[in-house]
């Protein structure tokens, strides 16, 4: 018994010695590797290539100093962009994060066309064309516009990416009638279209309008206006919309500041579809957005519009938007002001409200977000209107109707909504960037 006990203790001691030796050996190796790594980090590139090749391994890079410099630059640029409102990135806004984190965005302007979301995500504008630089703010002759003017740019037949040489205030004599495959890109300058006619997008496709201040638009018309290099014609009276979309598709209106026009700020009617209205700042206006021509115009049943990341600000009364017939995705917008209602409709539109922030006014009779205009009592109860994840503040309430099942809203869903708690950050830079 004693012999067996002594043998067991001896085996245990031997095992303990082996474990200690293994730990010491591992520690020595770790110290040696750490010393080698420190030496490698402190050595110059030439020394590493000449004297420490044996320390290189399969994951080593040819120029780690250059990589370190790139990482440091990336961190510094990212930090500085967050300090500067114009260049900030990683905001949670997928459109802005797509291009604003690129420190060379001015060289890569056309990349913007790949950043759209929602139903208008395939609007490429003038991505595949050359740049056109607007150098002249005049609009003396709507029939024979001078080269270098905005009107001369937008009527051309080929795709164009239109930019501006400097800050400009453009007063249009007549509607600015756009041709297909055009981008108006005012990033980096301060461009106002104001105190005259404004923009008409009629029977065309693939239009991007980005970065403009559009305000104080007036009714114009009963005049000849050119719409292409080979055609001009008589225009009857225009209503005075900031942006009028008529029978057109694949349209993206992004990062504009719009206010105080004679009629609507944005109207999309007469079978227009595949539209995204995003990152805009709307202020001081009555009837803000109209989507759908009339209750009797059933061709608007094809309409699909995304309203995303916009700020509906001070001085607004109604129609944010007002919808007819089609499918409308209202997602992650900030509603801080309205006097009558925020979202309205008639003719059984499908409205999918997701992740918005609705701050009701003080008026106790204007707390309801929604307004229905129905032909007879109770017909609206069959319309598919729903609110999912919306933040309703100061007594705001959303009156839902129709089907509760998600399947009824498939055609009115265009992107994944983010949490309503992020709306303030997502929309903080809405409007024309400056």
Set out the fold topology.
Blueprint: H1 2-42, H2 45-51, H3 64-83, H4 94-99, E1 130-134, H5 150-154, E2 160-164, E3 168-170, E4 176-177, E5 182-185, E6 191-194, E7 199-202, E8 205-210, E9 213-215, E10 223-228, E11 231-235, E12 243-246, E13 249-254, E14 257-259, E15 266-269, E16 273-278, E17 281-283, E18 285-287, E19 289-291, E20 304-308, E21 311-312, E22 316-318, E23 322-324, E24 327-331, E25 334-335, E26 343-346, E27 350-354, E28 357-359, E29 370-372, E30 385-388, E31 391-393, H6 423-426
Parallel strand pairs: 1-2, 2-5, 3-6, 4-7, 5-8, 6-9, 7-12, 8-13, 9-14, 12-15, 13-16, 14-17, 15-19, 16-20, 17-21, 18-22, 19-23, 20-24, 21-25, 23-26, 24-27, 25-28, 26-29, 27-30, 28-31
Antiparallel strand pairs: 10-11
Catalytic activity: Eliminative cleavage of (1->4)-alpha-D-galacturonan to give oligosaccharides with 4-deoxy-alpha-D-galact-4-enuronosyl groups at their non-reducing ends
GO molecular function, one term: metal ion binding
Organism: Solanum stoloniferum
Features:
ten-stranded parallel sheet; alpha/beta; 434 residues; globular; Pectate Lyase C-like; 6 helices; nine-stranded parallel sheet; 3 domains
Task: Describe the overall structure.
This protein is α/β, with parallel strands linked by helices and 434 residues long. The chain has 3 domains: 41 residues, no CATH class; 156 residues, Pectate Lyase C-like (3 Solenoid), CATH 2.160.20.10; 148 residues, 3 Solenoid (Pectate Lyase C-like), CATH 2.160.20. 19% of the residues lie in helices and 28% in strands. The protein is built from 6 helices and 31 strands. A 10-stranded parallel sheet has the order 1-2-5-8-13-16-20-24-27-30. The protein has a 9-stranded parallel sheet with strand order 3-6-9-14-17-21-25-28-31, with no helix packed on it. The longest helix is centred in the first third of the chain and has 41 residues. The chain is globular. The termini are far apart. Its cofactor is Ca(2+). Keywords: Calcium, Lyase, Metal-binding, Signal. GO terms for molecular function: metal ion binding; pectate lyase activity.
């Amino acid at each position: 018994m004693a012999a067996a006990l002594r043998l067991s203790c001896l085996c245990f001691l031997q095992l303990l010695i082996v474990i200690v030796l293994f730990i010491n050996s591992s520690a020595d190796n770790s110290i040696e590797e750490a010393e080698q790594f420190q030496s490698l980090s402190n050595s110059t590139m030439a020394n590493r290539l000449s004297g420490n090749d044996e320390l290189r391994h399969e994951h080593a890079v040819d120029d780690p100093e250059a990589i370190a410099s790139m990482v440091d630059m990336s961190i510094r640029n990212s930090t500085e962009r967050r300090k500067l409102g114009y260049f900030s990135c990683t905001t949670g806004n997928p459109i802005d994060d797509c291009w604003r984190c690129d420190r060379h965005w001015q060289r890569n302007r056309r990349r913007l066309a790949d950043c759209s979301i929602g139903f208008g995500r395939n609007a490429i504008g003038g991505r595949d064309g050359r740049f056109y630089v607007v150098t002249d703010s005049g609009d003396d002759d709507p029939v024979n516009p001078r080269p270098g003017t905005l009107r001369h740019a937008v009527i051309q037949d080929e795709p164009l990416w239109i930019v501006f040489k400097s800050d400009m205030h453009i007063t249009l004599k007549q509607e600015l009638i756009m041709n297909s495959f055009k981008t108006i890109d005012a990033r980096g300058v301060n461009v106002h279209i104001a105190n005259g006619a404004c923009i008409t997008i009629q029977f065309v496709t693939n239009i991007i309008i980005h970065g403009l201040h559009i305000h104080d638009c007036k009714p114009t018309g009963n005049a000849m206006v050119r719409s292409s290099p080979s055609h001009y014609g008589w225009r009857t009276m225009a209503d005075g919309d900031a942006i009028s979309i008529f029978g057109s598709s694949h349209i993206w209106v992004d990062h504009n500041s719009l206010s105080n026009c004679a009629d609507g700020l944005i109207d999309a009617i007469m079978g227009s579809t595949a539209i995204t209205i995003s990152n805009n700042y709307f202020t001081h206006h009555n009837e803000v957005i109209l989507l759908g021509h009339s209750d009797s115009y059933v061709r608007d049943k094809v309409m699909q519009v995304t309203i995303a990341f916009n700020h509906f600000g001070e001085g607004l009364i109604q129609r944010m938007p007002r919808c007819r017939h089609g499918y409308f995705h209202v997602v992650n917008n900030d509603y801080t002001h309205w006097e009558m209602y925020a979202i309205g409709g008639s003719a059984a539109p499908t409205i999918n409200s997701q992740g918005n922030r609705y701050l009701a006014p003080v008026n106790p009779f204007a707390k309801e977000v929604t307004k229905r205009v129905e032909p007879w009592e109770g017909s609206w109860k069959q319309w598919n209107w729903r609110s999912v994840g919306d933040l309703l503040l100061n007594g705001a309430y959303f009156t839902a109707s129709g089907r509760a099942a998600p399947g009824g809203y498939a055609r009115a869903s265009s992107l994944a909504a983010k949490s309503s708690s992020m709306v303030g950050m997502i929309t903080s830079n809405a409007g024309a960037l400056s």
